[in-house]
Each structure stands twice: as C-alpha cells, then as structure tokens.
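A common beginner's mistake is to predict each chain separately and then try to dock the pieces by hand. The better habit, illustrated here, is to supply every component at once so that their relative placement is modeled jointly.
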Amino acid sequence: MAAEQRTPPRGSGRGQRVTIADIARRAGVTSAAVSLAVNGRPGVSDATRERILEIARELRWEPSPAARALAGAPVLTVGMVLARPAEILGAEAFFGAFVAGLQEVLSREDYSLQMKIVETPEAEIETFRRWFSQRRVDGVVVVDLRLDDARIPALEELGLPALVVGGPGHHGSLPSVYVDDAHATRLLVDHLAELGHTRIARVAGDDVFLHTHQRDRTFAARCEELGLECLNQPAGFGASGAEVATAELLSREEPPSALLFDSDEMALAGCHVLEQAGLAVPADVAVASYEDSPLARGHRPPITAIGRSATEYGRVAADRLLEVIAARRERRETGGAGEPETRALIPELIVRGSTAPQLDGATGPSEEGPERPATRSSRTA
Amino acid sequence: MAAEQRTPPRGSGRGQRVTIADIARRAGVTSAAVSLAVNGRPGVSDATRERILEIARELRWEPSPAARALAGAPVLTVGMVLARPAEILGAEAFFGAFVAGLQEVLSREDYSLQMKIVETPEAEIETFRRWFSQRRVDGVVVVDLRLDDARIPALEELGLPALVVGGPGHHGSLPSVYVDDAHATRLLVDHLAELGHTRIARVAGDDVFLHTHQRDRTFAARCEELGLECLNQPAGFGASGAEVATAELLSREEPPSALLFDSDEMALAGCHVLEQAGLAVPADVAVASYEDSPLARGHRPPITAIGRSATEYGRVAADRLLEVIAARRERRETGGAGEPETRALIPELIVRGSTAPQLDGATGPSEEGPERPATRSSRTA
DNA sequence: ACCTGTGGCTAAAGCGCTATAGTAACTCGT
DNA sequence: ACGAGTTACTATAGCGCTTTAGCCACAGGT
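With all components supplied together, the output reads:
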C-alpha cells in the first residue's frame, strides 16, 4: 500500500493533472509503455495494453495536446483564414453554413477549427506561414479561390497539408473539393430557356474569384449553344453593386426577361430594383440565383436557386482535409507521393416562384414553407 | 567562424525551426535570458534585451505555442461551444455575425477561437472540462444562457475563466455582457403604442433561454403600464413554431393589430402566414422583431427591429473575456478577488416599413437600402 | 575593510509526451 | 548448446519553453 501513498487525485476538478506517469506507476510499467498502449502502437502485449487502457479510463486521463504537439504528434487542429471583412460571416449566409458543416465533422473527429480574419491575401499567406512554423495546425482549408492564387504555391512550398475549396481543375499539387459551377450554370440557363426566355442576363460577382470566371465562361457558352442572347454584367461586390448592375440592365433598349444573380444577397438587391421599377417577378422578369439561403427562401416570391447546401459543402471539405492529413502522416512513414484528388459536388436546381411560368406572380405556384427545400440539394460525386 | 558552422537556417520555409536556443547562442547568453527578454520580464539589462530582440527579429523566430503551453504559459485560445444543431450557424444570422465580432478582436490580440458543436448541454460541460484539463483554452464564452444554467456552477468549480453572454444579473462569480432586453422590450412596445396599437401580441421563442423569460416579464409589465392588452404566445423553436403561433393568434376573436417576434427568422415566418391570410403588413397588422439581420432588412416591407448589432456584441464579449483572462493572470500573482463585472449593450430601435403608420404598405415610407441601418445600432454602457 | 544588497545573468529542473536505442527473457533451428 | 531472431519492455533523450535557485561582480553604508 506504500505505493498508493501518492495516489493520483480524482473526482473534484481542481486537482493536479493526471499524466501518463501516473498511469505507468499504477500499472507497474514505464511511461513509454503507456504511450505505446494508448496510441495503439505495437510494442506492448495485448494483456498489458488492456490493463493500461483500463487504468487510464479509471483515472480519467486526458492527453495533453501541448505535450503531444511538442513531441511531434499532430495537434488535432485545422485552420482557415478569411481575407474579408468580419461582417461577411454574418452577411453571407454561405459562410455561416459552410463553417457549420466543417465544425460538424471536425468536432466528431476530435479536431478543432481555428479561424482567423485578416485584411489582405498577403496577410493570409503570412498566417499560414506562422501557423506552420508554430505547428499550430495540422492542415488548412483554403477558400475564396482567386485566379492565379498566390496561396497555392505558398502552401505547396510550406508543405502544409491543405484542401482547396473551389475548382475545377488541379491547384498545383493540392487536393480540392468544388461545386461544379459549369453544371450549375447549365441547369440555370436551361431552366430559363425552357420557360421561353431568350434574353438572359447574368449579374456577376467580383471577378477576382475563380468561380466567377468559371460561371462567366460557361454562361456564355451555354447561351450560345441554345441560341440565346446573353448579357454578362459585372457587378462587383455585394448588394449595392447588384443594384447598379440591375438598373443598368433595365435601362437597355431591349432589357432581358430573365436575370441570373451570383448570390442570394445580390438577387434580393436586384429584386428590389425591379420592384421599384414597377416590374413584377416572375411575370415581367424571372429571377434566379447561384446561391440558396434562408434569404432566397424567405423572399416573396421565393427565389429559384442552385442548392449547393453550404453545410454539406463544409462537411465534404472537412472530410477531405482529414483524409489529406491522415495520408500525409502515412506517407511520412512509407514514402509514396499520392495524387492530388479533386472531388466535385453536383449542384441541383431548386425551382421556386421567382421563375414560375407566367401566372400572376403575387405568390408563386411552387410556394413552399421556408424550411423545406424542393429537392435534395447536393450530393457527392 | 567556427561558431557560425551551425548557423540557424533561414529563408526557405522548409528548414529547421529556430528556437530560443539559436537566439541565445547568437547573443552569447543562455536561453533563460532570451525567455526573459522576449517576454518583457525583468532580469536582463535593457541593452541585452534590445540585442536579443534584434536577433530574434532577424532570425524570424516564432515562439512555439506547444512549448509555451507545456511550460505553463497561456495558450492564446478561447473556446466556445454550441449545444445546437450545426445548421444554426447558417440559419440564424445572429450567430454568424456574433462569431465574426469575436474573431475580429481575438485575431487582433493574437488569440484564436476554438469552436465546438455538441448535442446536449451536458456534453457542453464535458467539453469545458476537457478543454480545461487539456489546457486547450485560456477561457471560454458561454452563450445561449438558460434558466438555472448548469454550466455556470460547473465553470465556477473548474475555475476556468469564462464570460457569460446574456443577462441581466450576476451569474455566480462569472462576469457577463448582455443586451438589455428590458430596454429593448420597452422600445418596441412604446413604438407600437405610439402608432396607436392597443392589442399587441408577442410570439415568443424557446423558453429554456433566459432572455425569453426576461422578455416575457418586461413585455407584460410594459403593456400593463401603458394600459395595453398583451398576448404572450409561446412558439417554441424556429420558423415552424412561429407559423403555428401566428396562425393561432389570428384565429382569435379579437386578433392583435401588432405582432412582436423574438427573432428575424420567426418574423418572416409570421409575415408569410399573414400574407396567406390576406393581411397586409403594416396596413392590417404591424410586425416587429427583436433581432435584426439582412433577412429583416431584405424583406418587403423591411421589418422594424431591435438593432443589437451581433457583430458589436461579439466584439464586446471578446474584449471582456480577454480582460477576465488577463485579470486572472494578474490575480494569480497578487491575490485579489475581483468583482464579476457585468456590461450591458443598449439596444436601439430601427424603425422600418413593417410598422409604418397606415399608408399603403407596399413599400414602406422609411424604405432604405439593405446595407444602411437607420440608426447606430448599439453602444456599450 | 566587512557585511548587505542588488542588478544581471547562468544552470538546471521541469511541463507531458513521443521516439529510439538498448536489454532481458524467451523461442528456435541446427 | 550456441548464436540468431522475437517479443515485451525499460531507460533515456529530447521537443521548446518557463521558472526558480543560485552565482558573481560591483555598489553602497558603516
């Protein structure tokens, strides 16, 4: 019983931390054996391992992340940095939902998400650099992909595991997930064409982003394939840009009969302009959005949109990133290179009142409750 | 030059990490001296300190958070756990904006935010416990305050610095920030009363939350003071609850002429019910919300709401929490107790079309762009 | 001259864990 | 019966930092 003299503290929260040394003492082995046991590594007999695990459980031992990190183990954290004004998280529904999806799977895997908001893309790279050199994260997710994004080569050089959100195509050696914007564009254009629209305009978002370009291109291409007249109207950022662009489009000699907006926020802004101009949606002008959200659902008429389920998007991104991190760790042991894999989410079209066939438009025929989307919104390919 | 043989690697990212030992060697002192110098502690002369800092800068040294944490220094991370479905982050605009505010000041102070989504309040406490025993966070922010919230005593027992978001009143020994819901209620009720409404109903949110109770009480009290008839209609959670509750209110013999909703999401749901019932807002029924958001601004008519600026709320919360953490560290050195301080945000009323005096209601008279609130929305008291 | 400070630093002991070299005991094959 | 090969551990050296005790030189007071 003399060995019990220094029994580790239990129960009440304030006690000393219990360490592997405590477990080792109780189990009559060294801390090294405990480490092997709790990490599922070979080197201890099954019997001993079981005994050690039992004691660990009993003592309510929790590994110290700091100690692990210091000794070279993964830190169970992934990072994401946003080079945008903080408000974006609240203003653009996409981000909140995306982060929710990330959190969901990360939490489940005992990972945590570290976020940082910075001013410029350069600061973003600097943050990656610091996170890496401080070993603060095991990997990062890269959002708001730009053309010739400087972050890609920077991350490759650092050798920090990263998952690119956006596409399509390969980003250097980095794996990615993306929503197939070409497909989304076709869905939208085809839908409007079927309704009989022949002059379709697109109010495009900020063209520093890669997905904007992708949409630009496929929009023009699809319109041409279908023999439609297409107008691509760059609108810069946010609601005010969309208002100006919409007004601009309406002032044309032959204004379009259908408007395609790059985001829900922009679509609403556009609707307000239409309203003020005395034009009814969808009777006079049809409206559709690349981005679904409660905003789009809640508007009257509810807005036809691409349901890419930002939450699902976040989940998939997190899944992929964890795979990449795991693979990296494997690889360090084996040595294979591994191809950067790209995974696409297939967008679906959710038809709502804003593109209803010409009825009356007051409350569209495909009216629905704000919580129930018309179709499953996305799926992994 | 022999001493230079082991010169620390610079430039290209892949090199070995530079540690205080490297700096010490270059400066001709021990690592202890470097530690003192970089942490601004007494024990080195100003000249030496300057020299050490210079070298650190030159070598681009970054402290290792893991090593620091292991040695007992703060980990520069604060935690927040949400016992809600992940979707809430996207669905309720408040959260996105609140987190944005938190991030903003935390990032600036070089802190990071760790978030976790769990199923139950018990799991939340368990998470706090683990974060504490793993020394993963320096402090936490507690949201979604409930009646007799079990997290308060749990955190007090742990001795983990915490900041409670919600109030009013003290929560054990924990400091808090809150939005003055009593004041908000008076603003709303008074506003509706001034417009001539005498039968006001409130569609109340989930009553496990403390702020719901606070609103319940002050709503009843203020109505009585003004001699108004008040109806308090509990509606449970989210949009569907609000729909049911609104329908219920409309089916009364003498339906209310003004509706007060606990959130933007609920207000919109309520508006849809009104619309379907053929009632115009604000001509037939006035609508106001306790919660502002792009949703409320984007609706037609735009909805009168309490602007508590969730982002600002987040900023204040982060500020306070950092103060608490700093104070805690001081106190460990001195020994004072320190009063739990409470800070209130004064809400302001943003009048919009949904409570316009009886004109036509199609587009309210206090119409505004979606980005420009009518008044500054909140302020620290 | 002698003790007492005191500023400025060093030496060294951790923090809790992982990783690796080493060892003791226990098979085998021949 | 002997070296080789396993298996199951132990001992120990870090990881990069903080912190405390201790040391030395030099200042001042008496």
